[in-house]
Amino acid sequence: MNYWIVSGDIKKWKSEFAMTDPSFQTWIDWKEPINYSCYTKSKKPKLKGNVKNLAVGDVVLIYAKGRKVVIGEGEITSIANNQNSIAPGDYVTITPRVVFNAPIKIEDIIGNRSVTPFQNGFGEIHKTEYKNYKRAMALSGAKVVSNFNKSNLYDSVYLPKVTIDKILNLLNRKKNIILQGPPGVGKTYLAKKIIEYLTDKNNFTFVQFHQSYSYEDFIMGYKPTESGGFELQEGKFYVACNEAKKLQKIEGKNIAPYVFVIDEINRGNISKVFGELLMLIENNYRETSITLANQKEFYVPNNLYLIGLMNTADRSLAMIDYALRRRFSFVTIPSVFEGIETSDFGNWDTYDKGDDKQKKFAQFLKAEQLDEDYAKNLIKEIISLNNTIKEELGEGFVIGHSYFCNLEEDNLPVSKNRLVEVIEFEIAPLLEEYWFDNLERANELKDNLLNALK
């Protein structure tokens, strides 16, 4: 990942957004992607500086020229298909990540360095300068305003748009969904991105179930105090429902959802944890009050959304409670490797022009710096391994793509040594667990992965 800075003109931005987002009047209104032409607008158009060096996923700071401040931060989400032959009509698309109520002075980021390089193109921001930017943001107390839209959601996860739309539609209709899948497909990451899309960063609660998790932890119960007595304490879900109610109605309008995420939802004793509230989470019974054991009236508000996360490879657990299953929609999250053919290995470089699955796979290889031949050979072997796992164990046990995420250092291709570490210390132990009664088979599959790197 590289860091860039580009000059923004508020008048030109207003013109750009006149049709697509007429609400844009000031910098703080930036919430939709902005297109930057790759060429200067002149009688003899010239390619803007550094356009050929840009990549999807790079971070771009927006410099408000007239005010000499940085007003926000975006991410490059698309660029010309062929950067070696960029045409005057090609664009770079920058999608907002954060916008500041209190902008950052440019000198606090680049010091006395000239601003000329990024007034007619994309100027490079060195890592130390990007750290200055982060430090200045913290010291100034600048409030970060999230502007995470559906385009951000599409671009930030390795899932086809149709799958993301299905998840959002189910969540809107059912109120309760469970994201299930094998280890490493990004279930937790997806839940976090859904939160960013749906609501403010403060309007969510994240809990993890375990075998000792109880109704007292979740709803309400008496807990021991330091003085040796007991007092009634509100549980996580009870508090979350009350927070959601505060957001629920202002002038009679729903203004914000509240998201409650339960990791490892199948590890808890569902009947014990939910108690009488199991009925109230149903979308048909939202806003219906009941009297709790402590004689308090309670209901689950309409604007509270439940997202459960479940690992399908955990064989130590019994089937999920049927009463809970009826009240949730279940969505299986596939690996980015799903649907990618090893026989098509030679054509992977053209996948960025293929179907939605192929484009996501191409985005994965490029964004995670896995486009070197040795890394591609390993990914090819992982896909073959997953086919073997499906045949011998089932689809719920395949290897997910997150094992290969965030491995790069200093924006360089992922090294062979780092990939060997992933195989030896992350994937191999999982294979040994899968084939616990046939370690020879597990070692054979591990060796196939290691040999792919040679």
Automatic annotation (TrEMBL):
Residue ranges that the Swiss-Prot or TrEMBL entry lists as coiled coil: none
One GO MF term: ATP hydrolysis activity
UniProt cross-references to CDD domains, sorted A to Z: AAA
Start and end residues of each AAA+ ATPase domain: 173-334
Membrane-spanning parts: none
Alphabetized SMART domains for the sequence: AAA
InterPro entries referenced in this protein's UniProt entry, alphabetically: AAA+_ATPase, ATPase_dyneun-rel_AAA, Methyl-DNA_Rec/Restrict_Enz, P-loop_NTPase
Gene3D superfamilies documented for this protein: P-loop containing nucleotide triphosphate hydrolases
Protein name: AAA+ ATPase domain-containing protein
